[in-house]
Amino acid sequence: MTVLLFLIPLALFLGLSALAAFLWSLRSGQFDDLDGSAHRVLMDDDVEEEK
């Protein structure tokens, strides 16, 4: 029963830290351009044009 005194605050701390990390990533613009990376993979930028 005393283990609950340790586990409940630990679970709350982990949940709040995950929420804080998500809000930080949301504010820093991590989710602004979801399609850009998908299209950038398909672009062939390293091919040189023949003259």
Would you kindly provide a written description of the structure presented here, covering whatever features stand out?
The protein has 51 residues and is mostly helical. It has a domain at 1-25. Helices cover 65% and strands 0% of the residues. The chain is built from two helices and no strands. It has helices spanning 4-27, 34-42. The radius of gyration is 22 Å and the shape is rod-shaped.
Task: List the main descriptive attributes of the protein structure presented here.
51 residues; mainly alpha; 2 helices; rod-shaped
Secondary-structure class? mainly alpha
Helix content: 55-70%
User: What's the number of helices?
Assistant: 2
End-to-end C-alpha gap: 78 Å
Largest sheet: none
- Give the overall form: rod-shaped
| Overall residue-averaged pLDDT value | 86
- Rg, Å, rounded: 22 Å
- Written as H for each helix and E for each strand, in order along the chain, the element string is HH
How many runs of DSSP E, i.e. beta strands?
Answer: 0
List low-confidence stretches: none
As a percent range, the share of strand residues is: under 5%
